[in-house]
Amino acid sequence: MENFSVILVEPIYGGNIGSVARVMMNFGFKNLVMVNPPLTGIVAMKFAAHAKEIVQNAKIFKSFDEMAGNFDLLIGTSAKIAGDKNFIRTPISSAKIGNAVNVSGRIGIVFGREDCGLPDKEIEKCDILVTILTCKNYESLNLSHSVAVILYEIVREKNLRQKNFKKMKLADNLERDIMLEKFTELVSVFALGDFRTLLITKTFKIVTGRAFISGRECNTLTGVFRRSYELIEKLKQKKV
């Protein structure tokens, strides 16, 4: 699980940090990343038990944006979900996150603050949103429990796929950015207006993120979008 990182965004309690490290060690994950964590090193180390090294080696970033640039795929997590009216908070279930096992690249699983989770502006920067299905009467899980469920699903899927699947190379940030640029360029041809164009491109980004698109697939789509745009522009010039 070397290509996976558990990312804690502004965690509040040192005990939760230590408990997360312990869960990570249980499932074979080593890379802990924290965004603007508190100064609770002693408490975190106490709760980490035999996973102290994970806390000691954690990478620290000052902001979400600084952290996000270090990953090819960001998987956000949230108990606050919505229907089709808010596509940013339309998630996949935790059971489907195992698909990430079949891709290479730097994958970060993002967990929000204990009291308020991840806001829309941070979820929007994630490629996929995942939720854990719980009882509606009390939907929010403890941070370390949430991490345990997600990591379990990844490890379970890894064990099922280990003998039967080859890893595909995940599209990196540059490949996805170019694909999105060419898609946006194509959509702009239809003069739908800035708001609708932005909505369509955001939806496309979310859909392709859920699909764990490979580099080859990404480049193929980029070629289709580029060629389509060029053909449309040529037809426009002929009419003139």
From TrEMBL:
Ranges for domain tRNA/rRNA methyltransferase SpoU type come to 4-152
Q: Per the database entry, which stretches of residues form a coiled coil?
A: none
Q: Is S-adenosyl-L-methionine included in the keywords of this UniProt record?
A: yes
- InterPro entries annotated for this entry? Alpha/beta_knot_MTases, RNA_MeTrfase_TrmJ/LasT, SpoU_MeTrfase, tRNA_m1G_MTases_N
What molecular functions are annotated in GO for this chain?
RNA binding; RNA methyltransferase activity
Q: Tell me, what is an example of a GO biological process annotation in this record? A: tRNA nucleoside ribose methylation
The protein's superkingdom reads Archaea
Q: Which UniProt keywords apply?
A: Methyltransferase, S-adenosyl-L-methionine, Transferase
The name of this protein is TrmJ/YjtD family RNA methyltransferase
Q: Give the species this sequence originates from.
A: Candidatus Altarchaeum hamiconexum
Q: Taxonomically, what lineage is the organism?
A: Archaea, Candidatus Altarchaeota, Candidatus Altiarchaeia, Candidatus Altarchaeales, Candidatus Altarchaeaceae
